[in-house]
Design goal:
heterodimer; A: mainly alpha; MetI-like fold; two-stranded antiparallel sheet; 14 helices; 75% helix; 1% strand; B: mainly alpha; two-stranded antiparallel ribbon; 12 helices; globular
Chain lengths: 297, 275
Amino acid sequence: MTAVQDAPVRSRSMGLSTWLYRRPRARLAALLAAPVLWLALAYFGALFLLLMTSFYTVDDFTSLPVRAFSLDNYQTIFSNPAYVKVILRTVAIAASVTVIAALLGAPMAFFIAKVVPRRWRGLMVALVVTPLWASYLVKVYAWKTMMQPETGVVAWLLNPFGLSGPGYGVVAVTITLTYLWLPFMILPVYAGLERLPDSMLDASADLGARTGRTLRSVVLPLVYPSIVAGSIFTFSLSLGDYITVQIVGSKTQMLGSVVYGSYTTDLPFAAAMATVPIAIMVAYLAIVRRTGALDSL
Amino acid sequence: MTLSRPAKWAFGLMAMVCLAFIYVPLVVVVINSFNASQVFSWPPQGFTTEWWHAALTNPGARSAALSSVLIAGAATLFALVMGSLVAFALGRYSFFGRQTVSLLIILPLALPGIVTALALRTAFKPWLGTSWEWFGVAVGPTVIAAHATFCIVVIYNNVIARLRRMGTSPEEASMDLGAGVFTTFRLVTFPLIRPALVAGAVLAFGLSFDEIVVTLFTAPADVTTLPIWIFQSLFRPNQGPVVNVVAALLVLISVIPVYLSQKLSGDPGHAGGRM
């Protein structure tokens, strides 16, 4: 530092640099100020406002929120069987998507991490990742053409067996959402399996376990946290969807579509409805945390 | 590892089923863009390139694509600055509230899309009528701000991972040799985190370019991004063939970012940066 101080000419930036160098807290404040302010105002503040709005009511004539605390919106949601049904249907779809994605994704991840020769691994991962970059809407659109009743690809495949496709509805929504979020399941499970040393599998085999036993007693418990990590994505993303259900869901309603249908006319109600998936996600994370899966991530 | 032969075959078979599930719909979209029939039906009726010509000269699709590129570019730049700042703060300092800040950054992407969309709409309500004209297309500041907000986490994840791997010794060495805070950043830190910035930027750009859930809630009425254009066209039957071509085109160009990020990271197993 003496060299700097003895320097005959000290430019302004040098002065600032020295000042910053000596004050790590000032450096930290300078780094944090803009992003934290932005997130606090634009997002967190808005989220808080939204939660507040859910306790307001709406003026029937002006469609504007009236600022008086009430639980009316929540009461409407939970006393109306139609809305309860929508919530249950959404959770059921999100849960099915998660289970199907795990059943399809985990073997795929295992295949890439432990079966395929090392030099093919990069290619296989790229094959799984590439569809992530294809547009969300294009993928939903692809399933719209796949599931189209009578003239769709699925119907065409099933016709020779005397079957017709499921058409648009809950099944189409579940398949499409599974398709959309599958890579979010495969990637964390693959990452988890890659960290799992081959020697453990060899040890299990040396101790006399057959393949099935090794998979059940060694691999599954060790990749379970990764599957849970993937399930957070697949569950949360399915829970908040309102586009897919509009395109391939026929008249099916999900939480998101109720919010989408009501936010212009009754913002407090839409806000209350949007609080439901937040509450479900918080509950899901709490359950997941209890299993201890989050600790080992 | 030692797997029995039938087990290997079983896993191989399951992986093939999975890959077929992933790729058949995309292949159908591409084949379908050459389908001669005006309304969709499978199998295709005949081969034509007429729709490709119609789509590539479609003014609506072209200006929507330009609008998406501009919005994604602006959102990425904004997120690059914000995300790097946070990554440095959290990666290089420990302070009270560190966990809270890291939660705050992840929230816009972790909460269900509809929640983020509605929250951002509430925040940006006063500016929803404002739109700028860039290069002849309408661009919404509210959309840029909304996209940037959930892109911050992507940049943050890439930069902080890089900072952790790189440690503090290169910077300390630079400072010991007499370089100031800014010189060290310019000559040492920045070149070292550049790959992470590029990987994060590619990911953020892709995320914004493709976004529909938040966009529908935050776009001013005169702003049409490519996803909004596709979404609206899906409900107009006579647009069908043109949508097919745009969809096929988007499937085909999705190879570019994967190629880019694999090339940039130099690690074939690490594709597409970090979500």
